[in-house]
Amino acid sequence: MKKLLKNIAFISLASITFSSCLEETFPTDIATSDQVSVSEEALGALSNSVIAYMTTYDGGTSDNTNFGYAGFMMWRDVMLQDMPVYSTSYDYFNYGFGTTSYLGDYPVPSMFWTYHYNLINNANLLIGSIDPETMTETTKSYLGNALVYRAMAYMDLSRYFEYKHTGVSSLDSKAEANGIYGLTVPLITENTSEEEGRNNPRVPFYKMYRFIMNDLNNAEKYLSDFQREKKNWADLSVVYGMKARLWMELGSRFELYPDDLETQISHDKDAELETYASLNINSASDCYANAASYARKVIDKGYTPVGEAQWHDTASGFNTVNDAWIFAILIGANDGLSSWKAFISQISPEQTFGTTQYGAYRMIGKSLFDKIPDADWRKTSWIAPDDAGKNPVPSQYKTLLSDEQWANIPAYTGFKFRPNQGNMGNYLIGNVVNIPLMRVEEMYFIEAEAVAHTQGVQTGISLLENFMNTYRYKDGSYKCNSSNMELFIDELLVQKRIEFWGEGILAFDYKRLEKQIIRGYAGTNTPATHRYNSIKGYAAPWMNVYITSSEYKYNLSIINNPDPSSSIEAWEE
Questions:
Q1: CA–CA distance from 288 to each of 156, 508, 514 (Å)?
Q2: Which three-class secondary structure state does DSSP give residue 73?
């Protein structure tokens, strides 16, 4: 048994073990398909390595937030205003996107680059080892799955690192001078050589979108008849959900920046892109129509939104795959769990082995909580101020906490996510949970937003009201009173912020729509060290992630984003 270290983009990449030996390569350490055994056993091991990397402690640092993909989901929520922490003493998200002081060449931004390219590397190794002309039904599913994971990683990277206008003149003018507007990240495929990697510029959006869509198109073809056993494997519904997300990204971009649409269309015939299928669009409306279509395809697969009883179930609420989940991270008993370096250890107050024992309780932002009426049964996922400190536990809450424990938990603390089996004391059991990557509820929201753009705001409102009154309000009293598109989008975002708290969905929406982040306001429960407000009408500076020096020192063609550290002053009362 050998371990293969595939060096792509000149970063430390994941080692993969499998039963077939590989010939060591030097100096590039890039494995070619002829080095990999053609056996299904070997390919199966490679395929499993792609999935396993989602729970791998590997982002280039030893930080306690470095516990696989779920750590980035939390980072994305920390970028916004909806996950303040009660005490920053043991808040390992303090030295990152909760502040504006450590956003340059520091460990946390570096993790974003390193982790996702490691995931891409694993996918590339498998993709380059399968011949589409000779593959079996089994290896076809391996290939389709790897393409989905690669597409997801590139979609994430593009949204992290593409520079968007911030309203901070020193940053925006530097970005303009360096010519980085419209650039995403370097493309590294199964065919990228070391020489190419050393001179691999960030590709423009019009190429990246084509590449991602091409991966998803191929995955759709290869997974057309695939029936998965576990939801950490991709199937057609995952492909459709990814396409829905991507089409929304394109729709918003081309609506905000019509010149980008013209640029996209003008490159349809580029010889460099001829291997990737054209997007075949003429307007932002085309993109929204596609987003609505693919979201509906997922919904029609028969997924059912989480109900009140399951949501609040203390043993299996948001730690167990259910009929709403489309795609998920499955954490196994042998996934190298530690007491602090895990999702539940960081986010759940219903345990005694993680950071909450030192007061690092994850809360909902006060401004968002105040928007949740009592008729919305999701409200009891967080402790209302009037119910904090009470003994016994108020009857409307479902919790693993004793009366005495509850009395010591601060207001606004969230307990949406629970330890496995309700085990609060043993991290080897409590941390073994499932984590949603995509739920059908997201597809309902995508459909409503997309339809509002193609069929009018009132149609979008009707879809939103129908979802809320069918699945989230006890008495059917939800009413969306938005009079125009901007207000409708704001209201839809409020509901998504409530729905997906802790799931890392909204950061991409905020950057996509260039929405203001507000942590500082009268009565805020965000700690004073984290009270940074972005500029209205622009993306927050910290959402343009800085590229790690380990890349731009070795890739001679990399042009970095401006360092956003300390670019915005903290809000003060």
A1: 20, 16, 17
A2: helix
- CB 412 within 8 Å of CB 369: yes
Residues 207, 551: Cα–Cα separation, whole Å? 21
Distance (Å, whole) CA 471 – CA 332: 31
Distance CA 465, CA 451 (A): 13
**pLDDT of 370-416, one tens digit each?**
999 999 999 999 999 999 999 999 999 999 999 999 999 999 999 99
Residues 6+ apart with CB under 8 A from 450: 247, 248, 251, 288, 289, 291, 292, 295
With contact defined as beta carbons under 8 Å apart, do 119 and 50 qualify? yes
Residue listed under structure tokens 């299928």: 277
Residue with tokens 């073809």: 221
Report the Cα 91 to chain-centroid distance in Å: 21
Residue 452: count of CB within 10 angstroms of its CB = 24
User: Residue 445's Cα: distance from chain center in Å?
Assistant: 16
Q: Summarize pLDDT for 537-548 with one digit per residue, the tens.
A: 999 999 999 998
DSSP-assigned beta bridge partners for residue 434: 330
Which CATH topology does 1-67+99-216+535-563 take? 1.25.40
Yes or no: say if 535 and 168 are a contact pair by the CB < 8 Å rule: yes
Task: Tell me if 246 sits within 8 A of 213, measured CB to CB.
Answer: yes
